[in-house]
């Protein structure tokens, strides 16, 4: 049986965001859930569109995701952040790729963080598919 | 020329949310933009998946939406809210219908509000299509 880990204390929303994506890439369910607030009102919306509400439902959704084959990697771009004393928000474009490097698509993500008595934690992750990027293909002959 | 309106001061996130959906239903662009913070970091993601960043881009996106035919109505369900001193979050399932009453679909929405010097304003609206609801059809004979 794995030794119980002491949950880390994240001192900023950025630290939680980093822990969230690292846990996602590593498929580490304990690390993933340490990034979330233990609250019945936390919310996770995966790109498939289902809304999971509450700690247990969010945990189950990640257990199911992590049970799948292969691993994912994330590169965040176009970050927009807002932060107040107790709540913070981050919007980003997630470039998702397989751990072998193949592109899997782009996702628009909204993350909301709350300062709890045990440091900053994630309370909301809303991910939805980004529309395909328009590629300008030259209309004339290439050469 | 329309008389310039004094922007209202919303004293709670709930008031802004109500103003947002009322302006959406009325296709009233000035009322809609009064619900938003005048900030270059505000973000609006419509169910089509495009992310609009900044006051001007968000305004343009609603001008384009409101130029379409017909009007929409919204009924919010399964609300989950979190509020701190300066920032608040709301998650809801939007049941969207045409003004004639026909159902248009379900949308998962995340709204984030900030307390500004001129009251609470919307800073983020992330909307994405909800998956079709599974209907339990009896597997045996109906009668």
Structural features, described:
The structure is a homodimer of 143-residue chains. Chain A is globular. Helix content of chain A is 23%, strand content 38%. In chain A, a hairpin with a 5-residue loop joins strand 1 and strand 2 (51-53). With 143 residues, the first copy, chain A, is α+β, with helices and mostly antiparallel strands. A six-stranded mixed beta sheet of chain A has the order 2-1-6-5-4-3. Chain A has one domain (13-129): Nuclear Transport Factor 2, Chain: A (Roll), CATH 3.10.450. The A-B interface holds A 41, 43, 45, 48-51, 53, 78, 80-82, 84-89, 91, 93, 108, 110, 112, 114, 123-124, 126, 128-131 and B 41, 43, 45, 48-51, 53, 78, 80-82, 84-89, 91, 93, 108, 110, 112, 114, 123-124, 126, 128-131.
Shape of chain A: globular
| Number of helices in the DSSP assignment of chain A | 3
Low-confidence stretches of chain A: none
Query: What is the helix content of chain A?
Result: 10-25%
In short:
2 copies of one chain form a homodimer. By secondary structure, the first copy, chain A, is of the alpha+beta class. The first copy, chain A, has helices at residues 13-26, 29-34, 55-67, and strands at residues 43-45, 51-53, 72-83, 87-98, 103-116, 119-129.
Label this structure with key terms:
Nuclear Transport Factor 2, Chain: A, alpha+beta, 6 strands, 143 residues, 6-stranded mixed sheet
């Amino acid at each position: 049986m794995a030794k119980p880990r002491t949950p880390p204390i994240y001192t900023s929303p950025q630290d939680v965001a980093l822990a969230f994506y690292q846990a996602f890439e590593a498929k580490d369910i304990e690390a993933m859930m340490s990034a979330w607030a233990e609250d019945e009102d936390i919310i996770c919306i995966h790109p498939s569109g289902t809304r999971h509400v509450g700690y247990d439902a969010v945990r189950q959704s990640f257990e199911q995701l992590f049970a799948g084959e292969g691993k994912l990697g994330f590169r965040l771009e176009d970050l927009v952040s807002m932060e107040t004393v107790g709540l913070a928000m981050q919007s980003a474009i997630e470039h998702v790729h397989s751990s072998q490097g193949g592109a899997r698509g782009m996702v628009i993500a909204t993350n909301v963080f709350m300062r709890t008595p045990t440091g900053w934690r994630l309370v909301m992750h809303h991910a939805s598919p980004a529309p395909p990027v328009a590629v300008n293909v030259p209309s004339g002959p290439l050469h």
